[in-house]
Amino acid sequence: MSLAFPYAIDPRGRSAEVDDEGHVRDMIEQVLFTAPGERVNRPDFGCGLLQLVFAPNSDTVAAALQMTVQGALQQWLAPLIVIESVDLQVDDATLSVQVQYMLRSNQRRATAQFTQGLE
Questions:
Q1: 90 has which bridge partners?
Q2: Which pTM does this prediction carry?
Q3: What CATH number labels 2-117?
């Protein structure tokens, strides 16, 4: 068991925990929504996804953003998962990311969906 992200207290008054699959999903979320330079001891951690949302919308920017996200996930989570696909959708002030991956520990496929408002 691992600590839940974001940190929370469970009904027993202890640190909330998640199973291994939930922990991997939490780690994907951390990589996606952490900007490089945001963490003091790991300045290259993250993918800068939210910084690129305000770039002009074009096929080139979308492809670059998708490759950046996929590369960051592979860099930081390669021992735990195999990235199968990353799908990004930007609609006005909302960013949606869908990541399909396979857990290396048990060969199970999973899909994680994240939505972030940019207001």
A1: 95
A2: 0.81
A3: 3.10.450.40
Distance CA 68, CA 57 (A): 16
- Give the pLDDT score at 66: 85
Give residue limits of the domains in the chain.
Answer: 2-117
pLDDT reading at 100 higher than 90 = yes
Tokens encoding 53? 């949302």
Distance (Å) of CA 29 to CA 11, 12, 13, 14, 113: 24, 26, 25, 23, 9
Mean pLDDT of 47-56: 71
- Both tokens assigned to 110: 């999973």
Q: How far apart are CA 9 and CA 85, in angstroms?
A: 33
* Band (71; pLDDT cuts 50, 70, 90): very high
